[in-house]
């Protein structure tokens, strides 16, 4: 028993230290950008880590957590149902998982197609819960001059990452705004690995801000901009992100891809 407690204490100390370091990075980035610290919300991405870590994080003051796979997230969220947490779903979402995800997620950040909007709306109405939605933008799918070969490569490269091309954002925004039970909260992106923004995180996040401004022209309340992860949260804060999604820098390097 003493051994178990010691292990928990070690983990708590480790998480507290990591959180403090991430907090300092966010504060520094806000200061540098002339932004108030409270303009940026930390979301801790707990994928692949156990419910016990989520519990420690909640005790350490974390209020937003994110997961990307329903089969891992659903039991974890159930175990942590007593905690004052908002769960964000940030992974590719198949419509057959919508019922489960809508059971614990407050915000789905990976809305990228009309079919998903229909399924999420149906579930929100059925359960009487409002669901926040972010449009996931695939910046590697930006329309540009180029041949078919390049296009095929782009589609392949983002096949497992999801997202709608920037020119599809307005229509998807209208669909979400018109859907019963859904609330259009804003946009999300993952820095692209291919295409014109590959390796240019700051430029990618600045492009996301433009897309956000265009969306807000018609939907002023859709002011969430979710961008930036462990490696590039400073760029996201500099560009104007309101939410950063940090996994590794808080919890450690994941034991497997997730
Ligand atoms: C895993 C993940 C993150 C966190 O990535 P880290 O590099 O571990 O900080 C953020 N966003 C999404 C969509 C993710 O899948």
TrEMBL record:
Domain Alanine racemase N-terminal: 19-255
One MF annotation (Gene Ontology) recorded for this entry: pyridoxal phosphate binding
Pfam families noted in UniProt: Ala_racemase_N
Required cofactor names: pyridoxal 5'-phosphate
PROSITE patterns: UPF0001
CDD domains reported for this sequence: PLPDE_III_YBL036c_like
Gene3D superfamilies membership: Alanine racemase
Residue numbers bearing the N6-(pyridoxal phosphate)lysine modification: 47
Coiled coil region boundaries: 12-39
Family: Belongs to the pyridoxal phosphate-binding protein YggS/PROSC family.
Function recorded in the entry: Pyridoxal 5'-phosphate (PLP)-binding protein, which is involved in PLP homeostasis.
Full protein name: Pyridoxal phosphate homeostasis protein
């Amino acid at each position: 028993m003493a051994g178990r407690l010691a292990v928990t204490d070690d983990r708590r100390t480790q998480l507290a230290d990591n959180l403090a370091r991430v907090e300092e990075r966010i504060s520094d980035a806000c200061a540098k950008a002339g932004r108030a610290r409270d303009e940026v919300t930390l979301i801790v991405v707990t994928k692949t880590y156990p419910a016990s870590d989520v519990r420690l994080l909640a005790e350490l003051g974390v209020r937003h957590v994110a997961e990307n796979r329903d089969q891992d997230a659903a039991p974890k969220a159930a175990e942590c149902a007593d905690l004052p947490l908002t769960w964000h779903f940030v992974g590719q979402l198949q419509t057959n998982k919508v019922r489960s995800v809508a059971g614990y997620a407050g915000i789905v950040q990976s809305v990228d197609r009309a079919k998903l909007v229909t399924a999420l709306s149906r579930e929100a109405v059925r359960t009487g819960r409002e669901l926040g939605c972010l449009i996931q933008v695939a910046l590697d799918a930006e329309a540009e001059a180029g041949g078919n070969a390049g296009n095929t490569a782009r589609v392949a490269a983002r096949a497992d990452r999801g997202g709608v091309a920037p020119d599809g954002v307005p229509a998807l925004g209208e669909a979400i705004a018109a859907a019963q039970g859904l609330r259009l909260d804003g946009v999300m992106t993952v820095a692209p690995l291919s295409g014109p923004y590959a390796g240019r995180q700051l430029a990618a996040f600045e492009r996301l801000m433009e897309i956000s401004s265009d969306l807000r022209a018609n939907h002023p309340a859709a002011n969430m901009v979710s961008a930036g992860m462990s490696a590039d949260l400073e760029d996201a804060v500099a560009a104007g992100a309101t939410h950063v999604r940090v996994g590794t820098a808080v919890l450690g390097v994941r034991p497997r891809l997730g």
